[in-house]
Amino acid sequence: MGEMVVSKLSARYGSGRQRPVLALDQVSFRWREGESIAVMGSSGSGKSTLARLLLGLERPSAGTIRLDGVDLASLSAGAWRPYRRIVQGVFQDASGTLNPRFSAYRNMEEALLNLTDMTGRERRREIEGLMERFNLERQMLKVPVRSLSGGQQRRLSLLRALSVRPRYLVLDEVLSGLDRVSCDAVLETLADYRTGFGCSYLLITHDAYSAYRLADSCLLMEQGRLAGRAVKRPETLQAL
Ligand SMILES: Nc1ncnc2c1ncn2[C@@H]1O[C@H](COP(=O)(O)OP(=O)(O)OP(=O)(O)O)[C@@H](O)[C@H]1O
What we know:
Layout: E1 3-13, E2 21-32, E3 37-41, H1 47-54, E4 62-67, E5 70-71, H2 77-84, E6 87-91, H3 104-115, H4 120-133, H5 150-163, E7 168-172, H6 180-197, E8 200-204, H7 208-214, E9 217-222, E10 225-231
Parallel strand pairs: 3-8, 3-9, 6-7, 7-8
Antiparallel strand pairs: 1-2, 1-4, 4-5, 9-10
Bound molecules: adenosine-5'-triphosphate.
Residues 13-14, 21, 23, 41, 43-49 line the site of adenosine-5'-triphosphate (ATP).
């Protein structure tokens, strides 16, 4: 079993005359393969910064992120490429990953084209299989993404990330703004996928119910620091 080991990770923003912000301050934790972690904390506590660093979208100012022994934090954009298939991310705003002018199918296929060596037929089978597995109408694949609802776009960007079969998936506020029914549908999709393919999630959320449903443990962030880690106890579900 692999694991991601985050060690003393720090991120500092602001240079020159700007007042520097220490968005992340020496954060350390282990993310074992097969384990799902919720990250909670007040606004501005550093959760999204952590997500961007884990995905190689930004470089830390200090610290390491070791995946199976390789320090992802020290890799150039080019060297990160093979890891894109292993570590994927989905953000609250799907427009960052989806092209609104392209059809849903083309958006889905792009990830498979870039990150796998699947043939056209294999790509179609994978995409249609995922749509079916998660009860999304195939018809949806033909329409431009801009004509889909926010909830549909969110699910599509999630399926896009899952289609490359990542081992680790970082989910930044993917449930916020969804009503309880859509939220439950997404949680079910994720739980089902985890059972089928063994993907590990890092779920950034403000919602204790979602954290409880999906995660095995919870990291609590406070002003850029890791303030604590709680492990799930089944009896607490009654209280939520
Ligand atoms: N690109 C940036 N430039 C300057 N400061 C930044 C930048 N990104 C984040 N910050 C600052 O870093 C701190 C942590 O921000 P971050 O977005 O990681 O928090 P968060 O916990 O995800 O908040 P939220 O729950 O509101 O999304 C905040 O003080 C924020 O203003």
